[in-house]
Amino acid sequence: MIPHMDISIIVPLYNEEESLPELHAWIKRVCDNNNLSYEVIFVNDGSTDTSWQVIERLAAANPEVHGISFRRNYGKSPALFCGFRQAKGDVVITMDADLQDSPDEIPELRRMIVEDGYDLVSGYKQKRYDPLSKTIPTKLFNATARAVSGIHNLHDFNCGLKAYRRDVVKNIEVYGEMHRYIPILAKNAGFTRIGEKVVHHQARKYGKTKFGLDRFVNGYLDLMSLWFLGRFGQKPMHVFGLLGSLMFLIGLIAVVVVGASKLYALANGIPARLVTDSPYFYISLTMMLLGTQLFVAGFLGELISRNSDLRNNYQIEKVI
Hints:
Elements: E1 7-13, H1 20-33, E2 38-44, H2 51-61, E3 65-69, H3 76-86, E4 91-94, H4 106-114, E5 120-124, H5 132-149, E6 162-165, H6 166-170, H7 182-188, E7 194-198, H8 214-232, H9 237-267, H10 279-306
Parallel strand pairs: 1-2, 1-4, 2-3, 5-7
Antiparallel strand pairs: 4-6, 5-6
């Protein structure tokens, strides 16, 4: 029989050898003081320093410490995905390894899941110790994410400090760079009780940030992909077929108008240039061709969707 465990703490990391012992000691102190049964899963994302050796020493001396190590650097989303698969706690908490997330937040995050009934609680670093070059794009990014996702009560989608009911992490797939949008993935999976907690943000103590400005560009592209897949992923014909049909119909009407104008001029002895000399003729043909291609794209998307193993992957909460 698997023993009951209150929380699983997942810590993805890349080259954070200096902070790991201090972070573990801090987590241990908080959990022991609150009588929580717990495990700490360090996911080493292909670090090139001695991070894995530090994790091995911690695991040898502390039975609650577990480690996963990638052969190379894959990114934060794959690290979280593998950590979620291994987690055994009733509540799963994620945090960064750079000591900017405070383990002192753990008890209250767990309470909000267990007692308040949230499926997911996201941290909100209301007061940040980051330069303006990072905070301003972050605000714009979060505003866009709120508008697109409809989750208007979250101010910091990308905060690494989050708490989840175990069912949530076992029923979502975090891939690519989708760790920024786990609340949206959870919402799309039917976990709509999403809350937020203001958390303490600390200045980085060791090393330097591993993320550049390119994450904001990639973030917007991922957000658009997620929005489209969430809305049309299982019914692509609804968007491609509709747009294709409208473009084809407008192009067809335009061709008819061009042809009718030519016939009218001939019937009334009015000089008229060749139909092929009119730019509207070619614009009309282009719209008809694009409309046909969009419609065919929607049709092919429907064929792929119908043959996908995930076409009937529905989230069933309870069965009587």
